[in-house]
Amino acid sequence: SQTIHQWPATLVQPVGSPLSLECTVEGTSNPNLYWYRQAAGRGLQLLFYSVGIGQISSEVPQNLSASRPQDRQFILSSKKLLLSDSGFYLCAWSDGTNTYNEQFFGPGTRLTVL
Amino acid sequence: GESVGLHLPTLSVQEGDNSIINCAYSNSASDYFIWYKQESGKGPQFIIDIRSNMDKRQGQRVTVLLNKTVKHLSLQIAATQPGDSAVYFCAVPGPQGYSSASKIIFGSGTRLSIRP
After folding, report:
1. Is B83 helix (H, G, I), strand (E, B) or coil?
2. Taking CB atoms and an 8 Å cutoff, what residues of chain A touch B104?
3. What's the number of domains chain A is made of?
4. Do residues B78 and B61 touch, judged by C-beta distance below 8 A?
5. Is the pLDDT of residue B2 over 60?
């Protein structure tokens, strides 16, 4: 069966510090991968998605970047965090073989920027 | 562009009663709809989906109804239990990017709370 991992689970970082959040998927090959941010009490905002190694699409202008160095690894990064980067970050994957595919979410990383 | 909204941000239901969570969407061309459940501090979990060629689909204790005429869908939970407490999101596929990415647009969510 497929599983998706995210770490760390929680993170507190000072403003201006770098960020690296990691997501890995097991039990599937060539998944589509996604990074979402969820502000408190709000819905999910899609940040990045990837359909393959090295292929990254950004949905919104922001202080963050994403990379996919391996098929089942997706990394969210920042060189200098802003207060507004605080939130709950969710990684998700979907099967890229057809159009109607649900997305499976990881457990999330709660980031607090102070 | 596509947008998805919910009629109520919160819903309080007596344990054992049925819950109905509503969602409106804007794009009449939307052809696939998904409901997710998100418990506190966790990622969303898929509950049920429905395609536009259907107007009703049933799962275990859940039913999704789709009314394409008024662009409305609802999630019905039968015999609501304490474990149903969560935020429920409806979602529709967004404009497809290149290749096969299944981009999804989420509504803002309805928080369901259960009264004992």
Report:
1. helix
2. 46, 103
3. 1
4. yes
5. no
> Which CATH number is A102's domain given?
2.60.40.10
Q: In which domain, by residue range, is B86 found?
A: 4-115
* Dist CA B103 CA A58 (whole Å): 12
Pairwise CB contact (< 8 Å): B108 & A92? no
Q: Mind listing the pLDDT tens digit for each residue in A24-73?
A: 999 999 999 999 998 877 788 889 999 899 999 888 777 899 999 999 99
Q: Name the strand (E) or helix (H) holding A107.
A: none
* A85 three-class SS: helix
Contact of B25 with chain A, judged by CB distance below 8 Å, is answered with no
pLDDT digits (tens, 9 = 90+) for B25-39: 888 888 889 999 999
Q: Is B32 within 8 Å of A100 when comparing Cβ atoms?
A: yes
Report the pLDDT value the prediction gives residue B6, as an integer from 0 to 100: 46
Provide the terminal-to-terminal Cα distance of chain B, rounded to the nearest Å: 41
CATH number at residue B21: 2.60.40.10
